[in-house]
Amino acid sequence: MDLRAILKDEIEKVAKKLGYNTDRLVVSFSNVPLLCDFQTNYAMTTAKEYNKKPFDFAQEIVDKLKVDGFEFSVAMPGFINVKVSDGVLANYANYVLKDKDFGVEKVASPRNIIMDYGGANVAKALHVGHLRSPIIGEALKRLYRFMGDSVVADTHLGDWGLQMGLTILQLKLDGYLDEFFKAGAKLDAIELKNITLETLNEEYPKASSRKDVDEEFKKQADDFTLYIQQKKEPYYTIYKKIRHLSVEEIKKNYATLNATFDYWYGESDADEYIEPTIQLFIDKGLTRESEGALVVDIAREGEHIPIPKKSEDEEQRYKNPMPPAIIKKYNGAVLYATTDIATIAMRNKMDKYDEIIYIVDNRQEQHFTQVFRCSKLAGISPENQKLTYIAFGTMNGKDGKPFKTRSGGVVRLSEVIDMLVSKAAEKLKSNGIENNFEVARRIGVGAMKFGDLSNIVSKDYVFDLDKFLSFDGKTGPYIQYTIARINSILSKAQNEGKEINIYSSEIRDIVYAVMKLNSAYAVCYKDYSLNLLCSSAFDLAKAFSTLYNNHKILSEEDDKKRDSLLAVCSLVKRVLSNALYVLGIDTVDKM
Ligand code: ARG
Fold this sequence. Notes:
Elements: H1 3-17, E1 28-29, E2 38-40, H2 42-46, H3 54-64, E3 70-75, E4 79-84, H4 86-98, E5 112-116, H5 129-146, E6 150-154, H6 162-173, H7 178-181, H8 197-213, H9 215-229, H10 235-256, H11 271-283, E7 287-290, E8 293-296, E9 305-307, E10 317-319, E11 325-328, H12 336-350, E12 355-361, H13 365-377, E13 386-392, E14 395-396, H14 413-430, H15 437-453, E15 461-462, H16 465-468, H17 476-493, H18 505-527, H19 531-550, H20 559-583
Parallel strand pairs: 5-6, 5-12, 12-13, 14-15
Antiparallel strand pairs: 1-2, 2-4, 3-4, 7-8, 8-11, 9-10
The protein binds arginine.
């Protein structure tokens, strides 16, 4: 039940009867709530087509509009304003209270999609750059499922690239792998005794900086990478053991963040698709050789960017913004783009997906343009399959630079999580709740997720944990607190309330806020966004707090009013809990 859709239908009927075009008819929530609940600027966009003044055009329609429970009026220069009666709003509220989907309508044509988020790299520590992807990805997945899509999530671990060769080379040079390289060694039986995550976190950065200054070392790392990709021993067994060690840690971190995946595939799982994929490009005549590497040209005509002239009479030159995609290196090893294209081939073998959605930071724009164009060129992604790259901005510290913890350097994801939980625990302690790790985790992680998702996905934002954790303000904990408060009221009342009656402006405001929150789902669904859901949930929580301050709920003596107040509590609790669930945030009973 969507009151705006009902209104639109009614206005459309009248306008059509009068012979008017209704293409530009949109009914929106009012931005002057004192005046009306809904409005449309239809007359302003359409009257001139009929040489009429918007005001007169609007009046003509309003004169013919008769809908029970709605009051229409015209405001300068031609707005049609609508007020809805308390009775209609109460009906709506009672419907939402009972509906299993809280009154939110499913999409008309559900999609079958696969989502690619998380994207942690094996052998490298997860860092804050890997924090936003699982937060945004998980929330979008839950949103799409709630709206009726079939969605699977695949984390696409980075496990087939140069970092593996670099790490194993460094470990070998530092003497960690001697046993594996002994003649006749029984590889499977050897344990990675002295290698822990800490070791990996030290060895990889060491190798990574050395490769930039040491040609010979870099070449050797390239070779090691190739040996792994060729499954040559002992490289491959070492690789598998290191992968296992890392993946355990990654799983633990993602579980703490409530990020869940149907598939824990990595780049390496597309291995069997790599050769046939490269062959397909060759067979279709899409490749050429360049300095020993195999490349695919994907630039499109007219994409040239003018290079600024040094002097007036210099001839205008252009550069191409889209360099060729390298799908095979000089030494035969494959790269990030190759595994991504092969992964599309693999996914399309697994199922028929309408859309593949990637949630990756905004520095990978060129990579995804290359991967998408290559996949379309070779027909690996069918024409009617949508490939979507959702590029998110950077999480910055208060200094405006990418966020770092006190220890500096790359921030480990586990460090951030520890920080969230311990800060939340401190706050809880001041509220008299001690030593409850799970509650602290829910609040700390919820604070961060809400702080993140309140922003426009593509924008950078400042990670300000003290602000995010505030118990009053536009924060996750504020909404968790609202639900906890309602839990306490409902359990004291031992009664959930039966029927909502709108007998006060506070109740009316709450129902209106519920309606706005419900309409936010469709907007977010369409835009691949979550910020409107966050702000609407907050507005509802705020409206509840006004009700709570102005009404005595438990001690209300009028039975009908008391029942209505309790039903409002149940309504707010249900609707807010669902919004938090979709955002990937847990609720708590008490805080
Ligand atoms: N592992 C990559 C990185 O850390 C992210 C993977 C994103 N997904 C993808 N299909 N490329 O940058």
